[in-house]
Structure formats: structure tokens, C-alpha cells
Amino acid sequence: MSRQKEYVSPAGLRLDGRRPFESRRMDISFGTLSGCDGSCDISLGRSKVCATVFGPRESVHKQEAKHDEGIITCEVAVAAFAGESRRNPQRRGRLSEDISAAVVQVARSVVLLSQYPNSQIHLYVEVLQQDGNEKIACINAACLALVDANVAMRDAVCCTNVGLLDDHMLVDLTNDELRSQCPVIAAAFTGHDTRNIIWLETTSRLPPESALRLLKKAEESAKELFETTMRRALEAHAMQILALQN
């Protein structure tokens, strides 16, 4: 399909100056909020999110308290000034529900819930600014906040997305690129073994060969992001905790 807009220049640069396989810079800050059990702020390009963890604590619902495994709940708030949805409260509501469901699904895949019977872990995630990758930022921030809260987990998580736009594979799409309605795959992987997919979402039907290409690139992108950014942040955080204990 021909487009009037050129998303990748003949020089191989996207509209924001990145190469097709280049992710935006991720900045990670742990323990940014008090009054909770763990927190993490993530800036991913122009997207900014803040995740907080409350728990594990005794379940507030008596029926749920009988569960042999802990339960995870999540509330997502999209600030009215966050981005394109600022004038549409219903759209913000749908986005909040969509992100919340994804965060819970990913968190349940990695948290060792059997270690927290009759308990509840509540995640509160706030989207402060949007730029196409806020769901990815929310998943990453929520899982890192769980680390900060010392919740037992199988592994860390790294989430990213990849799209196919005008025959170009693009990593970490912007709002502008997503508005093209190109096929996109978003995926979350365990950080230390990105062959392990724990969450997958697609925006359209894709031929199997195209889906496999996008998924492979998502795996490569997640591995690079984890090794160059998230692992270093986790190691620095661990060293800081050890220094405080000594």
C-alpha cells in the first residue's frame, strides 16, 4: 500500500532520527515513592510511567483469602495530560483496562504466587506521558517495581514491540508510526532467556512467515534492551541494597 508519508528515509532513518532496529532510550529509577512496598519509574523515549507495589499483604476479600496462591491486581491511571487521549475520558478508560489486563497477565507469569497464599499484591501504574509505547513501559515498570518490593519472581521481564511498515521492520514504534495502522507485535520475554515468551499481542492478522520475522526481531530487541539497560539497572539496584545493609 502506498503512503503519502515517508516513515523511513532513503538514508534509513525514521522520522525521529532512529534507525529501524533502534529502541528509544530507557531510563530506570527504583524506590522513587514512599508509602509503598516497591516502586519504579521508567522513561522510554517520551513515554513516562510510574509503577508502585502494595504487598504482598493479607487479602482484603475473605473469599479470595482462601486461595492457596497469592492474587495480583492492577489499577492503571492515564493522566489527562498524558497524550492524545487527553480530551477523551472513555479512550483513557479503555487504555487503562487494556494495560491493566496485560500487566496482570505478565506479572502472574513470573511471580511465584505459591509462596504467598491468602495474600494479595496490588500494582498501581500511572501513565504520565504517552508516545506509542506506554503499554510496554507499564509492563516493564510494573515488573521492576515487583523486584524493588522483593517479591519472589522466576525472572525479570523485558517487553518491546516491532512493526512492519512499508516493508521496513521497526522496533519500538512511536504514536505517529502506530497511526499508520501497520501490523505490530508486542511481546514480553523473561530477561535472562528471551526465548521464553510470557505475553504476546498482535494488532492484525499476519501471514505465519511475517509473524515469525517480527517475533524474532522482538526477541533480539528485548535481549539487547535487557543486556544494555535493564540488567545494569538491576545490578546497580542490588549493589545499592547491599551497601545499605552493610
Automatic annotation (TrEMBL):
**Keyword Nuclease among UniProt keywords:** yes
Q: What is this protein called?
A: Putative exosome complex exonuclease rrp41
Which InterPro entries does the record cross-reference, listed alphabetically?
ExoRNase_PH_dom1 (IPR001247), ExoRNase_PH_dom2 (IPR015847), ExoRNase_PH_dom2_sf (IPR036345), PNPase/RNase_PH_dom_sf (IPR027408), Ribosomal_Su5_D2-typ_SF (IPR020568), RNase_PH (IPR050080)
**Membership in a protein family:** Belongs to the RNase PH family.
Q: Which UniProt keywords apply?
A: Exonuclease, Hydrolase, Nuclease
Q: Does the keyword Hydrolase apply?
A: yes
An example molecular function term from Gene Ontology annotations? RNA binding
GO BP terms, alphabetized? nuclear mRNA surveillance; poly(A)-dependent snoRNA 3'-end processing; rRNA catabolic process; U4 snRNA 3'-end processing
Q: Which organism is it from?
A: Leptomonas pyrrhocoris
For the Exoribonuclease phosphorolytic domain, which residue ranges apply? 22-151, 155-220
Q: Name one GO cellular component term.
A: cytoplasmic exosome (RNase complex)
